[in-house]
Structure formats: C-alpha cells, structure tokens
Specification:
By secondary structure, this protein is an alpha+beta fold. It has a two-stranded parallel sheet with strand order 1-2. It is built from two helices and two strands. The longest helix is centred in the middle third of the chain and has 9 residues.
Length: 50
C-alpha cells in the first residue's frame, strides 16, 4: 500500500522543522511542494516536484 505523508514546514526555515518532519522527509521517496516549502530539504537526494 502506498502512503502519503503531509509535513508542515512552518515559516519555511529549516530551524523550525520538528524532528518528526525531518525524519518523514528523509524517509520519503518524493517530496512535493512549492520552492519555498522544499528549500529546507535541498540537502536530501530525493526527487522533488514543485
């Protein structure tokens, strides 16, 4: 079964991400969001769709 996880990024700065949000993003196959929402995850080698 496929899963979709929604992660809140707060004001969009990596300092405001919770550990749970960081773990969920790291475990994801694909990240989807606006350029601002994806910015805190630019270090992850994931497919990103904006």
């Amino acid at each position: 079964m496929e899963n979709i996880t929604v992660i809140g990024v707060g004001p969009g700065h990596a300092d405001y991400l919770t550990p749970a949000a960081r773990q969920a993003a790291a475990a994801a196959d694909v990240l989807l969001g606006s350029a601002r929402a994806l910015a805190p995850f630019k270090h992850l080698r994931k497919k990103k769709l904006s």
